[in-house]
Design goal:
- The protein is mainly α and 135 residues long.
- It has one domain: Membrane associated eicosanoid/glutathione metabolism-like domain (Four Helix Bundle (Hemerythrin (Met), subunit A)).
- It contains 4 helices and no strands.
- Helix 1 packs antiparallel against helix 2, helix 2 packs antiparallel against helix 3 and helix 2 runs parallel beside helix 4.
- It is elongated.
């Protein structure tokens, strides 16, 4: 079954949701150490290492999404619903699902691999879109 270009828009929504998944771990840890509603950011130093890594994964997710969203929008606007474009979006989503898991579990090699694959997915969307308007 061929996916439509609408998947590119849906992938942006999914990507936005993925930003907040690591923060669920941070929230859990905050309540474990005693949540201070008057100074939530000051609690960072009290968090266990896994929760600090979850916070870093959450922050990195914003950075990755800031590039993915316009790349997916470019592919959508230029009508790129090819298998390559859809595949690139899927690669991004899968890698950004696994990235925080490997970050939280402290598996740097796999975390870095997921970071690279996500970036490759984003880069591919930009290339496919630009190629379509330049050729």
């Amino acid at each position: 079954m061929m996916m439509s270009s609408g998947f590119l828009l849906v992938s942006i929504v999914i990507g936005a949701v993925l930003i907040y998944l690591p923060f669920l771990v941070v929230g859990y840890a905050r309540f474990q150490v005693g949540y201070d509603i008057s100074a939530p950011r000051a609690m960072f130093d009290k968090l266990p290492p896994y929760a600090k890594r979850a916070a870093w994964a959450h922050q990195n997710s914003f950075e990755a999404f800031a590039l993915f969203a316009p790349a997916a929008l470019m592919a959508y606007v230029t009508g790129q619903a090819s298998q390559v474009a859809i595949g690139a979006a899927i690669v991004y989503l899968v890698s950004r699902t696994l990235y925080p898991i490997f970050y939280i579990l402290d598996v740097p090699l796999l975390r870095s691999l997921m970071f690279g694959l996500g970036g490759l997915g984003t880069f591919t969307l930009f290339v496919v879109s630009c190629r379509s308007v330049l050729m």
